[in-house]
């Protein structure tokens, strides 16, 4: 083993262990959560630990689908302050495309989304992915419809939840995001 490789491994392993220890339980053990339009797994701990996060379950064929534009505006407005947005397409309410390419076209092509989107996932009940089980447990509410919004602080705690009716530019949602941004890791 070369000296450079040895140093890389020697310093990377403790750093990875420290990052894993600092990862809130909400983001751990997500299993096989792939990025939309990709075979790349999303490691929620490495992407979002210590960062404020807005998590939204989405659907491509819903009356609330135009909220993608507002969600992207939120992301652009606050990403410099550390905010991350994660969109999770779901067909739990029977309004998601059958094809992930169509879902990607709606998100990326029609609305110009630049924040991370996952492949289609279940967000309610026993079939829900661990992230949404944790969001429901912490907040006391699973998504009631598409575009349900959860604001998570830097410690991985849900600080607010908002119904589908809440538009991304709503002052209460923006205040909750700002509160999450101001939280300390």
From TrEMBL:
<dbReference type="Pfam" id="PF00255">
    <property type="entry name" value="GSHPx"/>
</dbReference>
<dbReference type="InterPro" id="IPR013766">
    <property type="entry name" value="Thioredoxin_domain"/>
</dbReference>
<dbReference type="InterPro" id="IPR036249">
    <property type="entry name" value="Thioredoxin-like_sf"/>
</dbReference>
<dbReference type="GO" id="GO:0034599">
    <property type="term" value="P:cellular response to oxidative stress"/>
</dbReference>
<feature type="active site">
    <location>
        <position position="62"/>
    </location>
</feature>
<keyword id="KW-0575">Peroxidase</keyword>
<dbReference type="InterPro" id="IPR029759">
    <property type="entry name" value="GPX_AS"/>
</dbReference>
<dbReference type="GO" id="GO:0004601">
    <property type="term" value="F:peroxidase activity"/>
</dbReference>
<feature type="domain" description="Thioredoxin">
    <location>
        <begin position="7"/>
        <end position="182"/>
    </location>
</feature>
<comment type="similarity">
    <text>Belongs to the glutathione peroxidase family.</text>
</comment>
<keyword id="KW-0732">Signal</keyword>
<dbReference type="InterPro" id="IPR000889">
    <property type="entry name" value="Glutathione_peroxidase"/>
</dbReference>
<protein>
    <recommendedName>
        <fullName>Glutathione peroxidase</fullName>
    </recommendedName>
</protein>
<feature type="signal peptide">
    <location>
        <begin position="1"/>
        <end position="20"/>
    </location>
</feature>
<keyword id="KW-0560">Oxidoreductase</keyword>
């Amino acid at each position: 083993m070369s000296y450079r490789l040895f140093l890389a491994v020697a310093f990377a392993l403790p750093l990875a262990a420290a990052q894993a220890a600092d990862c809130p339980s909400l983001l751990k053990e997500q299993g096989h959560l792939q990025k939309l339009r990709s075979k790349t797994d999303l490691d929620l701990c490495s992407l979002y630990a210590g960062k404020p996060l807005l998590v939204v379950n989405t659907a491509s064929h819903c009356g609330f689908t135009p909220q993608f534009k507002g969600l992207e505006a939120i992301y652009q407005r606050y990403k410099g302050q550390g905010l991350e947005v994660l969109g999770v397409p779901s067909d739990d309410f029977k309004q998601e495309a059958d094809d992930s390419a169509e879902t990607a076209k709606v998100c990326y092509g029609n609305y110009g989304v630049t924040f991370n989107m996952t492949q289609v996932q279940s967000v309610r009940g026993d079939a829900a992915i661990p992230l949404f089980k944790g969001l429901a447990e912490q907040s006391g509410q699973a998504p009631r419809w598409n575009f349900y919004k959860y604001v998570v602080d830097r410690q991985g705690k849900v600080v607010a939840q908002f119904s589908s009716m809440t538009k991304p530019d709503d002052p209460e949602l923006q205040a909750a995001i700002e509160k999450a941004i101001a939280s300390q890791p």
